[in-house]
Amino acid sequence: MSTTPEPLEALDETWDRALCVVAHPDDMEFGAAAAVARWTGQGKTVVYCMVTSGEAGIDGMHPDECREVREAEQIESARVVGVDRVDFLHEPDGVVEYGVPLRRLIAAQVRRHRPDIVITGNFRDTWGGTNLNQADHIAVGRAVVDAVRDAGNRWVFTEQVTDGLEPWPGVRAVWAFGSPQAAHAVDTTDTFDAGVASLEAHRAYIDGLGWEDWDPREFLEGLGRGAGSRLGVAMAAPFEVFPMGWGD
After folding, report:
1. Which residues, 6+ apart, have CB-to-CB distance to 53 below 8 Å?
2. Which residues touch 45 (CB under 8 Å, ≥6 apart)?
3. Does the structure show a pLDDT above 90 at 209?
4. Pairing, β 117-121 against β 17-22
5. Fewer CB atoms inside 10 A, N or C side of the chain?
6. pTM of the model
7. Are 44 and 17 within 8 A, CB to CB?
8. 3-state secondary structure 135-202
């Protein structure tokens, strides 16, 4: 017996700065780029941070070459949706480990960019069915939530404070796009085409996957229409919201 999915609540868009921290180039484009285009169009500042450079992502290309190709594609993909800064942390693709070193790197990014909202990808074990999530996604998402709290504590990673990165307790929430437990969403109807173009900018990666007849627009439409129907619009991007304040 089928059940009707619960409606999604509109995200609070009363913020000015966002930092997006994900594992790989292309992660933002598989679910959140159209939302970013909406926000940069509103005059908000959005910065991208890639924990790896996706250098292990193309089987037929050596990682040293792949790193350069994928970084260039990500910079162009970000430009398409109005993002002009992309930081690469150069952690090893495919074997990212959750732990204090990763939290330290991400906390430094939070302290440097001082965002109101931090965005990451789904870090649940699955995508909502039996299709398992990838290990880097899980490690990075978990580290993001912890690093946001670390960034606000003067006595965690004190060497960063000594070097001039002041604590930043101003992150209101972490938003995880694509989560199967998403209860919020944002209308991406007007910026859907920009999201498609942003994903299409990862041409070498898409070709390297060997997905014959795979259509980025068709893929994103499937995601966007499903979330849109739950928000009451044509297209939407879903997010799981993790409040960072006490008692939320």
Report:
1. 25, 66, 67, 70, 71, 88, 90, 93
2. 16, 17, 18
3. no
4. parallel
5. N
6. 0.96
7. yes
8. HHHHHHHHHHHHHHHHHCCCCCCHHHHHCCCCCCCCCCEEEEECCCCCCEEEECHHHHHHHHHHHHCC
Query: What pLDDT digit, counting tens, does each position of 158-175 carry?
Result: 999 999 999 999 999 999
Q: In b/e form, how buried is each residue of 107-122, taking b as 16+ CB within 10 angstroms? A: bbbbbbbebbbbbbbb
> What's the full length of the chain, in residues?
248
Task: Sheet containing 17-22: give its strands across.
Answer: 9-10, 184-187, 236-243, 173-177, 117-121, 17-22, 45-52, 86-91
Find out whether 40 and 46 touch, Cβ atoms under 8 Å: yes
For residues 44 and 174, what is the distance between their CA atoms, to the nearest angstrom?
17
- Out of 3-7, 16-20, 34-38, which region has the weakest mean confidence (pLDDT)? 3-7
> Strand, helix or coil at 206?
helix
CA 84 vs. chain centroid, Å, equals 16
Q: Which of 147, 132, 124 is nearest to 49 (CA)?
A: 147
**What is residue 123's DSSP assignment?**
-
How many C-beta atoms lie closer than 10 Å to residue 35's C-beta? 29
